[in-house]
Amino acid sequence: MTAELYPGDYFGGKPDNDSVLSERSWLINEIIKPELPNIIDNVDKCLELLTSDESFRMPISNGVPAEPNAAYVRGVLTRKGALITDFQVMIRFKQFNRGKHCLFKMDSELPFPIEQINTITQNLKTVSELLDSLQLCGDVEIFTADLSHVMELLSKSTNLLQYPPKYLLFPFNGNMVLKHMFKSSETPFESSHHVLNMDLVILNTEVCMDFRNLQKITTKPWSDYDAESDKTFTDKIRDELKLHRGKRLSEVLQDQGLHIEEPSLLRNMLPLKNTHNATTLPEAQEILARCVTFEAGLVSECEKVSVSTSDPSLISITSKLNGLETCVSNYYSNITQI
């Protein structure tokens, strides 16, 4: 003979499915749903800030140069919603354009899209639609699944601000920022020996930019480029070293048909020697350490300036997104732990 002394107390056993659904239904209807209007209101405020027609002008500067010939950047950037609508910048690198100032003016008829803001805006529009449907949802399982989707989208949005996508960064960005913004610029950002590169991303509450002066490396066979694999010979050697970690560099080079020569003054004075399949270990080590494949060639970073500027609306957006993610994550955790 058994008796249920304390309803809802399972004495260490697992609750039946009806009890779980009942408890989850109570939590949803009594705790979570009353808070949904507040959550929706914060999502709408984020969307309002992200899609605002207000323009934000922000100064760009890396500060006072430490020495007369030091690299520096000065300018003004204007953001409107998910677009850079105006950007004027003066750049000076010691080894580019003979150390002279380069002035770049953006073509205002070709605004530059900020992909991170675009993606976050789309995520939050989906979140807003899901939250509206959750207010009317009476099915516990559907409510839980949709709340999980909301949590996932909020997490992706906050991660986008904290960790910019790889394809927006050097050397994977294909110099898309300079090519788009300054397509009609009178000032060239490439010479026979150097090319400028610029990253522009959102990082938390700031608009961040890296300006690089890249030296073109033409040393053979290191700069040989294979369009099919989108890799240079340098990448191929790196891949082989990763694949055969037990092999020495000299062995990998020889396996790839390179002849190892001893460093000498005569070799340095005969650059044409580099057109043949020969190298020295110091040369190989330096190229592997310093050079990367970029725009179907090999480059080495010789100068870099990093700048960032606070964006007023991003401060509010970041704060609200972090709060929303924490709130929804806690609710979802409470549901699934029953």
Identify the notable features of this structure and list them briefly.
KLTH0F08206p; 338 residues; alpha+beta; RAVE2/Rogdi; single chain; disordered N terminus
Structure description:
It holds the Pfam family Rogdi_lz. InterPro entries: RAVE2/Rogdi. This is KLTH0F08206p. With 338 residues, the chain is α+β, with helices and mostly antiparallel strands. The chain has a domain at 23-184 and 312-338. 41% of the residues lie in helices and 24% in strands. α2 packs antiparallel against α3, α2 (36-50) packs antiparallel against α10 and α4 (140-162) runs antiparallel to α10. The chain is flat, with a radius of gyration of 28 Å. The two termini are 29 Å apart.
What's the short version?
This protein is an alpha+beta fold.
Tell me the overall shape: flat
Beta-strand level of the residues, as a percent range?
15-25%
Instruction: Give the uncertain stretches in residue-range form.
Output: 1-6
What's the Cα radius of gyration? 28 Å
> Would you tell me the overall average pLDDT?
90
Number of strand segments = 13
- Tell me the span between the first and last alpha carbons: 29 Å
Quickly count the helices.
Answer: 10
Order of helices and strands: HHEEEEEHHHEEEEHHEHEHEEH
Largest sheet, in brief, is:
5 strands, antiparallel
